[in-house]
């Protein structure tokens, strides 16, 4: 997989975790699909600092995964969803945005990059895995799933420079996001799912 028509020299993938309790990863590919950098982050401030200081940002396309907001599944939702519970006048649907399914984590930082003229898109990891023929055959993000995904990336997409030791799930997902960033600027067929905090959320055509 090579970049032939794009003007960008680097393609950045960001696998974004919902909270700082889990790792997020960034992968940078060059025009020949060679991995230049893989790094892990936990805090939004560190990711924003990377975007401000990295030399790759000035000449790149960026794809960041959607981080889903888990508050929908918390006790408050379970309580208020019971059909036999009478809701008082003080109950307001979506108070404090607790029914939102997509997290706004890092959304301001990504929008600033877009406003600087950088090509920025959002994606769903599971949809991309299916589109690239990398669907999970095991429970997602388990050790055996990560091993299977890393082997598939090596053999099917020629990432031969990947280390022998197993990468984290977020790092592998960041590689897939970077692949999509490259495909997007090279006009691979995509479909817009929705607008997410001012940035297009796209799905890739299934191979």
Short overview:
The protein is an alpha/beta fold. It has helices spanning 44-53, 75-80, 107-115, 125-131, 143-157, 169-185, and strands spanning 10-15, 24-30, 35-41, 60-65, 119-123, 190-196, 199-204.
Structure description:
The chain is an alpha/beta fold and 207 residues long. It is 31% helix and 21% strand. The protein has helices spanning 44-53, 75-80, 107-115, 125-131, 143-157, 169-185; strands at residues 10-15, 24-30, 35-41, 60-65, 119-123, 190-196, 199-204. Strands 3-2-1-4-5 form a 5-stranded mixed β-sheet. A hairpin with an 8-residue loop joins strand 1 (10-15) and strand 2 (24-30). The longest helix is centred in the last third of the chain and has 17 residues, at 169-185. The protein is globular. The mean pLDDT is 88.
List strands and helices in order, with pairings.
Blueprint: E1 10-15, E2 24-30, E3 35-41, H1 44-53, E4 60-65, H2 75-80, H3 107-115, E5 119-123, H4 125-131, H5 143-157, H6 169-185, E6 190-196, E7 199-204
Parallel strand pairs: 1-4, 4-5
Antiparallel strand pairs: 1-2, 2-3, 6-7
